[in-house]
Structure formats: structure tokens, C-alpha cells
Design a protein that fits this description.
The protein has 12 helices and 16 strands. The protein is α+β, with helices and mostly antiparallel strands. The protein is elongated. It starts with 10 loop residues before the first strand and ends with a helix.
Amino acid sequence: MEDQTDMMEHSEMTSGGKQTPRPRRSLDLPVRGLQGLFGTVMPACGPLSPLARLPVCDGPADPEALASIWESLQGEWIWSVPALLDPHRVIAVIFGDGNSSFVGQYVFPDDEAHGPGFLVEIHPETVRLTGPVSLEEVRAGLFPHLSLELVADPEPARIEVAADHFWTLTACLDACCEVALARRLLRLPGVPAGVDAGQIAKAWANGIASPDPGWSVSLFRRLAPARVPDDFASRLPQLLDDMVREGALRKIVAPDLGEPLFAVPGELNRLSGEFVNRMHFGLVSQVLGNQSESQISLVGGWLTPDGVWLADLGDLDQEKVSLACVSPDVVVDLMDQLIGRAEPGPREDGFTMETVFDLASLVSRLRDLSSPGRVPVHQAPGFCPRCGGAVSADARFCRSCGANLQSEQRS
């Protein structure tokens, strides 16, 4: 993920029940050093994993620089290494309203998140870790961004749409917002009756070319990058006609309009009516129990004064998306389920777990790679086409999401 900023003040409970600032620090790891890892270990990368999307630096890798930094780690920070290389719980959150945005990714070494977590930021030449952080702190920092106290309880609604129709809807909503903003600049009253095919196509192109999580196309493309149809732009005219025929869109034809306009009918009209005053948000939760188990949840949505619309992307593999308009209380319950709660028992010696990404062993390997004549050129791993996870060249299945790599490559 890119453009990440910390969203919370880390704190811990004192014996008197009051919150006090919790010590935290940031650690910058050189991208060139991390690239050296690919010559000796295979990191486990899931959806939106930072290591699956490292920027490519020209020239040889620099494992010595990374070894020097890792060798100095102490205390809870020794768990930043398996948390980054083999995260068993990953939580990614996205917020945007068109004016500002926040993208944060938190990684934990163990699936129950008893161990310390770390916020990960990707920069052109460094990967920054900030922490330690707990699940409770992630939750505490999430809800102020949602501002659910400003949202009314809506009339519940639930709709299921085909995947192609969902992507078309995101482009329609962005087109409506662009037209509404243009009308506002011209001080024209009212809201647009609809948008034409050219405006919808432009909104899709803008969302792909200029990613901004404050817009629908960009948000959901970031949440499910492997599920965005490559040929969507060329099929858009046919998709619009199909949606009109099925009643998923309303076509407005009038002599004074010129091009026909498309409008969102029925329950979804409540969402399209909030052209400007809405917050976009997304949440990805991944829990990796072992090499054969992985639980992934992808939810995005729009927060409006009249309710929260949620889009469950979990059924994209079945070519469908579930949409629901829900109350703030439902959103709180959902976030609790997706983020989870960690209740670690007392540990006299601190957190411990077994991991193949042992810090001392990795430093030794990096030192060995730094020997004269053994510094590798950047060797990026292969990636799963479904979730972006790193995979070895001969792997049949993705460790992160369980996808059959041979069938995914053929599709």
C-alpha cells in the first residue's frame, strides 16, 4: 500500500484504568536490503501485502544494510521481522472523502494478534514500520475516522448484483459526483438527473489512472485489484445496455438532453443521491492459520448522513457482490468481527511463538549474501494473480489465499 499515515495515538492502560501514551518508534528498512531477501527466503505475502508491491530499485540488492538494522533489534521489535515477512494477521484500512485520504496496513506475527503489531508504510526507497500496536489500538483509531455518530438510522436494504454490474455502478457513482461538483462550481441548483456514457467511461478511466480512495472506482480497485476486469472499458457500452434491460439502471432519453442519461433506480438511488457528502472506506482482514488455511474478508462502502452502504467483496470469485444499507450499530458490530479482539494471557517473559523467520538466522543469511561476489541482483518473487501473494516458481497453490495457481494462470 502507498501513502500510509498513522491513524492513532498509541496508549496503554495503567493500573488506575487511565490511558497513558505508549512508547512507539519508527524503523526504516531499505528496499535494496529487502530485495536481497528474495535470493534466500520466500516471504508470505497476502492481499495488499507491502512486500508483494515493493518498488523496484535499479542495481544490486544490499543485504548488508538490512542485516545491520535487524541485528540491533531488541524487545518487542524482534517480532517486526516475522510480522513483516510472514504476517499471520493483516488488517488494512482505507478512508477517503475526495479531499483527504488515509491508507494504513497493520501486520501481526501470529493469527490471534497476541504479539505486537506494526503499521507498515511504503516509500520509494524505504519501508517504514511504526509500533508496537495492539488490535485494541487499531480499533480505537478506526472509529473516529468513521464519525458514525453523525449517521442516521436508515431503512434497511439489501441488494445482490453481478460483479460486472458492480464495477459499472462504481463508475456511475463517480461520474455522478464529478458532474455534481462541476454544477456546484457553476452555482447551478439541483442535482444531475443522470450521467451519459462518455461521463461514465471518463470516471472509470480517471479512477484507474489517478488512484484516490475518496472515489468509488479507485477504492474498490485497491481492495480487489486482481478482480478488476481488464477489458471493462471496452465492454462498458454493452454493460450499460444490459443493466438498463435488467432494470439495474434507468435510461433517460429526451430531445433536449442530447446523449441519453443513465440513472440509478430503486434503493440504490439513495446512495447516488449523496453525490458529494460521503466518505469512502474499506477494510481487508486476513488471518493465516497455517499453510493450508487462510480467512480473507474484503468489505468496502460509503458513509453518508442517511446511512452506511456496505459492499461485501467476498463473493467476487462467484461473480457477484452483495450491497446493504445498514445502521451505524451494524457497522460497529461488523468492524469488531473483522478486526477481532485479542485477549492475551499474562506472560512473565513476554510474547513468544515459533517461526521459520527467526531473526538471528535471517541476519546470518544476509551476512552470507553480503560476501564478495555473492550480492544478488534484485530477484522479485512470483506473485499470485488472485491475491498478490509471493509464490515460488514451482508452487501449485498460493499459501496466502489457497488459489490453484495453474488454473489462475490459465484464466
